[in-house]
Amino acid sequence: MRFNILTLISLVFVAPVSAQYFSEGWAPGQAVPSAVPSDTHPSFEPRTEPLPPPREGESRFSLSYILSSGPIAQLFNSFGINITERLQVAHDNLEIWDNRVPFVHDENYEDLIVKEELTEQEEKDRVWFLIITVSAAQRSGISMFADKQFDEAFNTTLIENDLPNVRWGRIDYINVTHITSKWAVWNAPVLVAVTDRGQTLRFWRATQIRLKAEALREFLKSGTWEHTPPWQTSFAPGGSREFIMEWQAIAMTRYYEFMRVIPRWALYIFTGLIGSLIMNLVHREKKPEADKKNAAPAPTPTTPAKATTSDTTTAVAPSSTNATPVKGKGKKGKK
Q1: Is 80 exceeded by the pLDDT of residue 313?
Q2: 202 phi, psi to nearest 5 deg
Q3: Which helix (H) or strand (E) is 131 found in, with range?
Q4: Cβ contacts of residue 116 below 8 Å, gap of 6+?
Q5: pLDDT value at 45 more than 70
Q6: Cα separation values, 191 from 143, 156, 162, 237, 329, Å
């Protein structure tokens, strides 16, 4: 009975609430509803935006244009990579140098210098004058100045045509690993004179030579560069330990190829973990030496030596029960 009462009470509250969902229907004087409802939402019309025109001197089929426009650029942007900016930086790097000066790198060094097709006399006279530069990473300082003077000397030589036996070249220190590691070049800018198909090397730092275009040309024309002794240690090309420098160059090249593909944030995390581990090992707490010296030594157990009858005597205390009284002298009592 109680259940029926609760059911009726709930129906009383549910009925008014549910009534608001019923339509009153059509009434006379109202417009007749259409069978097909009108679409209030605008239809989707895809828009096609034309691709930006290529830059001056650039083709629509060039790799830089394909990467910087269309869906490929949008894909890079979704990963937070501004590919257009990266390509612009690479393009600007090429503009800081004279493009007529050939680049010498790990892949073309053998074909360009070591295996160059020459006659016997040309092989004796051939001099490769190279500059190792870091201007791609540092746009200011002595490296940019050295590149500018080097390019001016090269341009003047092309005009004058007075150094037919000299070939000019440039090595980008940032992107060339094998050659610089084998030559033990760890900073730049450095000028190098390469002769005998790469077997004789002479090096000059920026502070050891006048970095002026005319001074560089006079340095080569007068033969003053030959007064500098070549690199003739056991690690030099042709030396007994040249293989060590070759192995080092291969190892450094593999390391560079591995590190360049790792994201920068992963390097930050890895170096932070290594640094934290080293700091914990260096600064770990040690027990002071004074506490070790003042600490009482632990007692060592000793075994008592057995007594022998010949060496030791045992004193026995008199027992109170078995003891006899000592007779002393006393006064005699009266009888």
Answers
A1: no
A2: -130, 135
A3: strand 127-133
A4: 126, 197
A5: no
A6: 11, 18, 20, 17, 130
User: DSSP letters of 260-318?
Assistant: TTS-HHHHHHHHHHHHHHHHHHHT-----HHHHHHSPPPPPP-PPPPP-TTT-----PP
Q: Which helix (H) or strand (E) holds 10?
A: helix 2-19
pLDDT of residue 328: 47
Nearest to 189 by CA among 143, 150, 145: 143
Global pTM reads 0.57
User: CB-based contacts of 167: which residues, under 8 Å, 6+ apart?
Assistant: 126, 127, 128, 129
Give pLDDT tens digits for 280-301.
888 777 666 655 566 556 566 5
- For 113, 184, 221, 239, 252, the CA distances from 110, given in Å and listed in that order, are 6, 18, 26, 19, 19
Q: Which of 74, 89, 70, 105 is nearest to 175 (CA)?
A: 105
169/128 Cα distance (integer angstroms): 7
Q: Round to whole Å and give the CA distance between 284 and 89.
A: 47
The pLDDT tens digits of the residues spanning 111-142 come to: 999 999 989 899 999 999 999 998 776 666 78
Q: What is the number of other CB atoms lying within 10 angstroms of the CB of residue 211?
A: 19
- Per-residue pLDDT, 174: 86
Alpha-carbon span 27 to 37, nearest angstrom? 19
pLDDT digits (tens, 9 = 90+) for 242-271: 999 999 999 998 988 888 777 777 878 888
Which residues, in sequence order, are bridge partners of residue 195?
200
Q: Name the token pair of 43.
A: 């239809």
Contact 179, 239 (CB under 8 A): no
